[in-house]
């Protein structure tokens, strides 16, 4: 982790945006967690806010490997 600033904002923003776009709660939580993870990989609080394509690629590459149950 480089910098935890912005992780909570990224989580909340992506969670709410995902719900508004019709994702179920589990999917919205997965997307929000991925966004928070992406944000803490760099210094600063806005530099790595993911775009939809970036988030999708991240989830395809990493998000399916972990079963959170």
In short:
The chain has 69 residues and is an all-alpha fold. The chain has 3 helices and no strands.
Plain-language structure description:
Helices cover 59% and strands 0% of the residues. It contains three helices and no strands. The chain has helices spanning 7-20, 25-39, 52-63.
Please give the structural blueprint.
Blueprint: H1 7-20, H2 25-39, H3 52-63
Helix pairs in contact: 1-2, 2-3
Descriptive labels:
69 residues; 3 helices; mainly alpha; globular
* Individual helix count: 3
The number of distinct β-strands equals 0
Taken from the alpha-carbon principal axes, the silhouette is globular
> How do the helices and strands follow one another from N- to C-terminus?
HHH
How many strands, which pairing sense, and closed or not: the largest β-sheet?
none
What is the overall pLDDT average?
A: 83
Helix content: 55-70%
Q: Termini, distance in Å?
A: 24 Å
Which structural class is indicated by helix and strand composition? mainly alpha
How much beta, percentage-wise? under 5%
The Cα radius of gyration reads 11 Å
Low-pLDDT parts are: none
């Amino acid at each position: 982790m480089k910098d935890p600033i912005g992780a909570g904002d990224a989580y909340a923003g992506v969670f709410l945006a995902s719900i508004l776009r019709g994702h179920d709660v589990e999917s919205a939580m997965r997307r929000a967690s991925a966004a928070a993870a992406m944000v803490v990989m760099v210094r600063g609080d806005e530099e790595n806010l993911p775009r939809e394509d970036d988030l999708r690629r991240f989830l395809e590459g990493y998000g399916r490997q972990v079963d959170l149950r």
